[in-house]
Amino acid sequence: MVAQEDLYRKVFVFRKDPSDAYVVLRAKLEQPLQNFTVCLRSYTDLTRPYSLFSYATKAQDNEILLFKPKPGEYRFYVGGRFVTFRVPQSIAESEHVCASWESATGIVGFWFNGKPWPRKGLQRGYTVGPAPSWHCGTGGDHKPSGDNKAPAFLGGLGWASMRAAYQSLRLPPAVMAWKSLSYEVKGDVVVKPRLREALGP
């Protein structure tokens, strides 16, 4: 069943491990993407590989994929190819991650807990296909090509924003807004307030 609600300061909680649970995000996108930014906040004690966000089309499973193969490392895929960002290792700590890509230059920007990492190049001139399937917290078929099926995320996962001070790009209006998100839950996932809000001031 598709739901639409304001999820500001709320998270999806994936409760079981191992899990095949995920959330399908609903957004109309009929034109190819020339650039994009995705920002997420996650909270987990997992040390195994997992996917946080995927954008798949009929032609390409990994049009966009944010994947964490192990603590201290993120892989960001565009069109089936990826760049790696190494970050401080942390377990059971909240992590805020933003990744951006633009076709004209192939530049990938990456921010970890508000701090920019050195930019890298990936798929210059590539166009991300339209009519996507957007998933978050997914194991499913949305995994790096050639890898074994990655179990789904376990823990709390929420959309996040990027402060303008941390980036030099002017971003277009959001395709998916957390304050009016249309989504469908698959498996054992519940919506809860972020821990900070649940505990009070």
TrEMBL record:
Alphabetized InterPro entries for the sequence: ConA-like_dom_sf, Pentaxin_CS, Pentraxin_domain, PTX_dom
Keyword entries, A-Z: Acute phase, Calcium, Disulfide bond, Metal-binding, Secreted, Signal
Subcellular locations according to the entry: Secreted
Main location: secreted
Lineage: superkingdom: Eukaryota
Cofactor details (free text): Binds 2 calcium ions per subunit.
Domain Pentraxin (PTX) residues, every copy: 8-197
Disulfide bond sites: 39-98
GO molecular function: complement component C1q complex binding; metal ion binding
GO biological process per UniProt: acute-phase response; innate immune response
Entries under SUPFAM superfamilies matching the protein: Concanavalin A-like lectins/glucanases
PROSITE patterns tied to this protein: PTX_1, PTX_2
Keyword Transcription regulation carried by entry: no
Any single Gene Ontology cellular-component annotation: extracellular space
Pfam families linked to this entry: Pentaxin
Quaternary structure and partners: Homopentamer. Pentaxin (or pentraxin) have a discoid arrangement of 5 non-covalently bound subunits.
Family designation: Belongs to the pentraxin family.
PANTHER family: C-REACTIVE PROTEIN, C-REACTIVE PROTEIN-RELATED
Name the UniProt record assigns to this protein: Pentraxin family member
